[in-house]
Amino acid sequence: MLRKFFHHHTGKADDKCNKLCCTKIDGFSVTFGKNDVFHDVNIHIHCGELTALIGPNGAGKSTLLKAILGEIDHQGNLYYFDAKGKHTGNPVIGYVPQYLNFDLSTPTSVLDLFRVSLSNRPAWFQSKAKERESVLHTLKKVKAEHLIDRRLGALSGGELQRVLLALALNPLPDLLLLDEPVSGVDQNGLEIFYEIVSELRKSHDLAIILISHDFNLVAKHADRVVLLDKTVVCNGVPKEVFRDARTHKIFGMLVNHGERGE
């Protein structure tokens, strides 16, 4: 079911889902057989902040997100805190994958995709008119309301990823995980997506983890950057991480940095 793919509901009421203040990833490790994917990962994620996760291929970035979702066995703990520093119940987590596999010839529309994702709700939950209005409201958050009747196969890469982002926002999550969500999207689509994500974290006080290789856009929009290479190599505001000698060594180049992180 698509809803399971985009959201992990963990017993928290939807109307109280945006109360998370801090997510603490404590001592996370994942091992497949004798393969150490990553070890001793410690990161604090704060609400209202966009945390970019960067690293070379094979560093364990996507695996870390799946471990947070509970889809992969791991060692370590996740702790969630409210504004008073008290432990909270498990949050609602939104997730946007790198891509969605589907038949390009399918007649399925964006609205149909939302209907499938909402299919676990009772039939009397809302009328079709209200359902459409609700979907339009969610799509508007990602500047994609005009796509509601568009076939999935007719969407550009950037448009599809904005639709998937909208799905992850329905209902509004406490923690939003974005796994290279604009891989293969053109420059214009990249900039639009980053601007939307940046605005979402401000307007909805979201905690966001974004895996990205788009260093210039990360430098411009991220509040914090975590460099992962089997473990956390360095962690800080963009300029700190992009100026770090360890970053240069791993990527074999000087990384441009933008205006954020002064």
From TrEMBL:
Signal peptide: none annotated. This is Metal ABC transporter ATP-binding protein. It comes from Selenobaculum gibii. PROSITE patterns: ABC_TRANSPORTER_1, ABC_TRANSPORTER_2. Keywords: ATP-binding, Nucleotide-binding, Transport. InterPro entries: AAA+_ATPase (IPR003593), ABC_transporter-like_ATP-bd (IPR003439), ABC_transporter-like_CS (IPR017871), Metal_Ion_Import_ABC (IPR050153), P-loop_NTPase (IPR027417). One of its GO terms (molecular function) is ATP binding. Residues 23-254 form the ABC transporter domain. The keyword Transferase does not apply. It holds the Pfam family ABC_tran.
